[in-house]
Amino acid sequence: MNRTCQIDFYVLASPAQSAERLACRLAMMAWEQGHKVAVLTASEKDAAALDEIMWDFPAGRFLPHGTGQENAEAPVSIGTDDKELPTGRDLLINLTDHAIEDPARFTRLLEIVPGAEQKRLASRQKYREYRAVGLEPSSHKIGK
Fold first, then answer.
1. Total domain count for the chain?
2. Of 31, 39, 46, 98, which has the fewest CB atoms closer than 10 Å, so is most exposed?
3. Distances (CA, A) of 34 to 28, 133, 135
4. What is the pTM of this model?
5. Which residue range is the domain that position 28 belongs to?
6. Is the residue at 1 inside a domain?
7. Predicted confidence (pLDDT) at residue 2 exceeds the cutoff of 60
8. CB–CB of 114/13 below 8 Å?
9. What pairing do the DSSP bridges indicate for beta strands 6-12 and 108-113?
């Protein structure tokens, strides 16, 4: 299979901006466009926090989601291991500090770059890793 993956880095302007809220916004837009979305977090604690945010954000809307394999049918799935995400996901939102192995498993990969400098360094490394395997990530600045 010789698929390519469109990778987009969303760069937050300041540390005060929430990567999790942006992930919710992007997941909502992707779901509304018919994508099956997965959101990857660094830990179970982060997954639980994102799950809570998705119940209330965006205000007045409902983003159908679930965590783990028991909610594999939910349009948006939250997980901590990209190899254990439910099958059939075509768009991945990565909230971890690590590049995704074999990103071509997905049609799109969205990387969120937090405003904190340490997180920016990790994102720069991910950008280099994707370029090293022949992918051409795009970047988008997200204002205040």
1. 1
2. 98
3. 10, 28, 24
4. 0.93
5. 6-142
6. no
7. no
8. no
9. parallel
